């Protein structure tokens, strides 16, 4: 199985028809260019091919966010996120005469959410029945662990990631009394001892939820299991608390997100392995991207080398790829990211490396000029990549891949119109300077 490793860190057409130079608009840029017989051509008739593919799996245990929730998407089916966590303590010590009063799981919001937070959603807390021990060095978005089918507790709530700092879920005292007693009696003295009695939690959404996927922090100051206790005193009991939290220094992952989508009945259900590409010609002239799940857009320029049909010697001055999300695909509930990561793929859809130019790593950005007219268009400077395709020997079957930032730790999605769309065609705009030999 292919794995997408460290995707953030690892962070190209023959003309559609024969080109007659006299039919191409010539931009005169000053008398000096005219005198030296240099012409600047702006060409936008190169073929652009978009397709969707899906990474077999992506790492979901190396970020700082827990994702929990479920929502239904008109384009990408139902999307579900569940978190798995193992807990530890700073020290394993409790007063000998302490009495357990209550237990609560506190989940600290980290300000991320996707979809509709006005809807009531549910979190179900289940006990894990197996330790968090990955078969390899990481857990992935496809990873799961067994847990008790009956939840310890559940909480229905409306997410308030900006108005509240955390979500409080009360647990029954019986769920933690044994652990409390064993710590108090010095029978649990470290994480290994704790793991024998308590494997951790799986945090699941409601099976019928259609609201939002919400982000919660892994930071021990924000997310923890708190035991509230009191120590009897002659005049007034002394209250205290003891916390278990996600270990930020664990040698092995102590938390991960399982992120799935149900695309039954959609064109995406054919994407069963990473090497399969779904062209826009077979998907309603649309291409798809979704973080967390692993959908990404592959971009190819099959006719770029027809530029050599132009007489004279030339060079690429710039190349801008323009792509448009359909207006119906985004709104305030399902917003667009303002940037896209760009990398190079091989023929098997494995990432080779990032695309970089003189300004650094290349990103796709929403064109502010077009945005003013409610016409959102991503513009991606791909001149370095196009220049490499024109000079490569031998021909390499690579392509560009587009995906959002935080691909491993969000569920953001973007829909892009293909090259046959009557509203806006995906296109490459090439500025090319031609001069005589």
What do these coordinates show?
With 437 residues, the chain is mainly beta. It has helices spanning 30-35, 177-184, 191-197, 368-371, 383-391, and strands spanning 26-27, 39-43, 49-54, 65-73, 77-85, 99-115, 121-127, 153-157, 166-171, 201-205, 212-217, 224-231, 238-245, 255-262, 278-279, 286-290, 295-300, 313-323, 339-345, 351-354, 356-357, 360-361, 363-366, 378-381, 399-403, 413-417, 427-435. Strands 1, 2, 3, 15, 17, 18, 19, 20, 23, 24, 25 and 27 form a 12-stranded antiparallel β-sheet that branches. It is elongated and about 100 Å long. The model is unreliable at 5-35 (pLDDT under 50).
Compile the SSE list and pairings.
Blueprint: E1 26-27, H1 30-35, E2 39-43, E3 49-54, E4 65-73, E5 77-85, E6 99-115, E7 121-127, E8 153-157, E9 166-171, H2 177-184, H3 191-197, E10 201-205, E11 212-217, E12 224-231, E13 238-245, E14 255-262, E15 278-279, E16 286-290, E17 295-300, E18 313-323, E19 339-345, E20 351-354, E21 356-357, E22 360-361, E23 363-366, H4 368-371, E24 378-381, H5 383-391, E25 399-403, E26 413-417, E27 427-435
Antiparallel strand pairs: 1-2, 2-27, 3-15, 3-17, 4-5, 4-11, 5-10, 5-14, 6-9, 6-11, 6-12, 7-8, 7-10, 12-13, 16-26, 17-25, 18-24, 18-27, 19-20, 19-23, 19-25, 21-22, 23-24
């Amino acid at each position: 199985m292919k794995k997408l490793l460290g995707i953030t860190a690892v962070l190209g057409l023959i003309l559609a028809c024969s080109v007659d130079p006299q039919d191409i608009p010539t931009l005169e840029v000053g008398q000096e260019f005219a005198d030296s017989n240099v012409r600047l051509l702006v060409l936008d008739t190169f073929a652009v091919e978009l397709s969707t593919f899906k990474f077999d799996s992506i790492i979901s245990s190396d970020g700082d966010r827990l994702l929990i929730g479920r929502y239904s998407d008109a384009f990408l089916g139902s999307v579900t996120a569940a978190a798995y966590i193992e807990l530890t303590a700073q020290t394993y010590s409790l007063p000998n005469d302490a009495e357990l009063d209550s237990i609560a799981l506190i989940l600290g919001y980290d300000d991320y959410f996707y979809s509709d937070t006005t809807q009531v959603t549910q979190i179900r807390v289940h006990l894990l029945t197996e330790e968090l021990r990955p078969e390899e060095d990481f857990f992935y978005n496809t990873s799961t662990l067994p847990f008790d089918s009956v939840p310890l507790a559940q909480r229905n709530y409306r997410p308030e990631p900006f108005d509240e700092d955390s979500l409080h879920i009360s647990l029954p005292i019986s769920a933690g009394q044994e652990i409390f007693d064993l710590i108090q009696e010095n029978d649990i003295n470290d994480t290994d001892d704790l793991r024998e009695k308590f494997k951790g939690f799986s945090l699941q959404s409601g099976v019928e939820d259609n609201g939002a996927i919400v982000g919660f922090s892994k930071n021990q100051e924000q997310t923890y299991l708190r035991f509230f206790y009191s120590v009897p005193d002659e005049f007034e009991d002394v209250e205290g608390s003891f916390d278990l939290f996600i270990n930020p220094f664990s040698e092995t992952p102590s938390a991960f997100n399982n992120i799935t989508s149900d695309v039954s009945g959609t064109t995406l259900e054919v994407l069963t392995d990473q090497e399969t590409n779904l062209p826009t010609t077979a998907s309603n002239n649309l291409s798809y991207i979704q973080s967390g799940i692993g959908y990404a857009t592959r971009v190819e320029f099959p006719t770029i080398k027809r530029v050599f049909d132009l007489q004279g010697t030339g060079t690429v001055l710039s190349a801008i790829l323009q792509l448009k999300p359909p207006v119906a695909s985004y709104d305030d509930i399902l917003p667009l990211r303002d940037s896209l990561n760009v990398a190079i793929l091989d023929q098997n859809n494995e990432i080779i490396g990032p695309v970089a130019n003189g300004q650094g790593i290349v990103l796709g950005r929403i064109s502010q000029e077009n945005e003013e007219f409610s016409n959102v268009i991503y513009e991606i400077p791909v001149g370095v990549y196009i220049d490499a395709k024109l000079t490569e020997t031998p021909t390499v079957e690579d392509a560009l891949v587009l995906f959002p930032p935080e691909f491993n730790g969000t569920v953001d999605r973007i829909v892009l119109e293909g090259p046959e769309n009557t509203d806006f065609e995906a296109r490459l705009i090439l500025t090319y300077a031609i001069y005589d030999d």
